[in-house]
Amino acid sequence: MSQGIEFNRLMLEMRSMQADAMARPKPVSATPEPGAPSFSEMLGQAVGKVNETQQASTQLATAFEMGKSGVDLTDVMIASQKASVSFQAMTQVRNKLVQAYQDIMQMPV
């Protein structure tokens, strides 16, 4: 359960950072390729995939606990590990983004 609470906190922080990034005016020199996703879109998609992985793992574990046929313990453990690794990777990305943001904000202008 604490992993779910941690994930929710991470999601709130990431959405806050995304909202801050979207609220700032874009530099004039930045001309993205037509049809290319923005960084905030890519980040949102990555967070969504981590969320989907977490939910799939939880559903599979619940199905196993309820004794549904066709749900194997190895599948549950693999899904759990995938969810854990994806969450840890997202946390590391968040930490790097926060550190980069703090470094940029501390630069003299």
Automatic annotation (TrEMBL):
Q: Which GO terms describe its molecular function?
A: cytoskeletal motor activity; structural molecule activity
Provide the protein's localization.
Answer: Bacterial flagellum basal body
Gene Ontology cellular component annotations, sorted alphabetically = bacterial-type flagellum basal body
Q: Which UniProt keywords apply?
A: Bacterial flagellum, Cell projection, Cilium, Flagellum
Q: In the UniProt record, does the keyword Iron occur?
A: no
Q: Which GO terms describe its biological process?
A: bacterial-type flagellum-dependent cell motility
The segment annotated Disordered runs over 21-40
Q: Which PANTHER family match?
A: FLAGELLAR HOOK-BASAL BODY COMPLEX PROTEIN FLIE, PTHR34653
Write down the NCBIfam families for this protein, in alphabetical order.
Answer: fliE
Q: What is the protein name for this chain?
A: Flagellar hook-basal body complex protein FliE
